[in-house]
Every structure is written in C-alpha cells, then in structure tokens.
Write a structure and sequence with these properties.
Structural class: alpha+beta
Oligomer: single chain
Largest sheet: 6 strands, mixed
Distance between the termini: 31 Å
Radius of gyration: 16 Å
Low-confidence stretches: 1-8
Mean pLDDT: 88
Length: 154
C-alpha cells in the first residue's frame, strides 16, 4: 500500500467553513481535555448518547453509552500499567455536509518512562469522527480509532 504523498489539509475542505471546522475541532479538543482531567461527564457531553465507537481497546462495535461505560469500567485503574503523560491531536481534516461533519485526525499518546528509566514510545492513533449538528451544537455520533503504532504494553 503506497503512502499519500500529498500534504493533508489541516483546516476545512470544500463544504466546510473555517467556523464549522473550528467548532468541530473544539468538540474534539474539549473531549480530550475532559479525558486528561478524568472528567467522564465532560467526555460524555461531546458524545451523542447513542454514539457508536470502534474503541482501540475493544473488538466489538460499542453501541451507545452503556457499552462505552462497560469498556471504561474494565480499563486499568490509575497506577496500573504505563502512565499517560499527554495527548496531542493533530493534522485535522474536516468536511461538512449540511448538519453532518466528518473529522479525520491523528492522536499521539505519550507515556512516562518505564520503572527502569527506559523511554516508552508513544502510541499513534488514526481517527475518524462523525458529528451531527443540532441547532448550534455538534455532538459525536461515531468515533473510529485505529492504532498505527502501539504504545507500551505493560
């Protein structure tokens, strides 16, 4: 499979105004800020309650908040496994079709060094998000995560 050699636009594409692209990106960045803060309710504000998710840590398609909560509750507790030190979302590409937006971006998850001081490599995740606008509010209705470079395993 060949790599795309064309530069990927980082703002709105035809059909998306800069304001729409910024509003869609703001939903995503607010969700990750809530994640960093351990604010599950803040994350949920970005998501439609019936949103579907291909979560990088789960095989089945998650159907709505109950499925997502089941996966969240099964994740390691803080202090178990590698410690995340930062999330960086970048290289956004946004299309808007009326009240539907498609956002593609990369997410980098950084980790603290291993207990022996060995640096942990970051996890790199390719993402596609579909959002729906109701009035002036965008909410995520589908999130697809695709890990391209796994981070530390334990």
């Amino acid at each position: 499979m060949s790599e795309n050699t064309h530069p990927v636009p980082s703002t709105a594409r035809p059909g998306a105004s800069a304001a729409d692209a910024d509003a869609v990106w703001a939903v995503l960045t607010a969700m990750y800020e809530a994640y960093d803060a351990g604010d599950r309710a803040g994350i949920d504000r970005a998501l439609d309650p019936g949103a579907t998710v291909w979560d990088s840590a789960a095989d089945p398609l998650l159907l709505g908040k109950a499925d997502l909560d089941r996966i969240r509750d099964a994740r390691p507790a803080p202090g178990e496994g590698p410690r995340e030190t930062g999330l960086t979302a970048y290289d956004r590409t946004v299309d808007v079709f009326g009240d539907i937006a498609v956002l593609r971006f990369w997410l980098r998850v950084d980790f603290a060094p291993a207990p022996d001081g060995t640096p942990n490599r970051p996890e790199l995740i390719r993402n596609t998000v579909i959002l729906h606008r109701a009035g002036a509010t965008w909410r995520i209705v589908h999130l697809h995560e695709d890990v391209r470079q796994p981070g530390p395993t334990g």
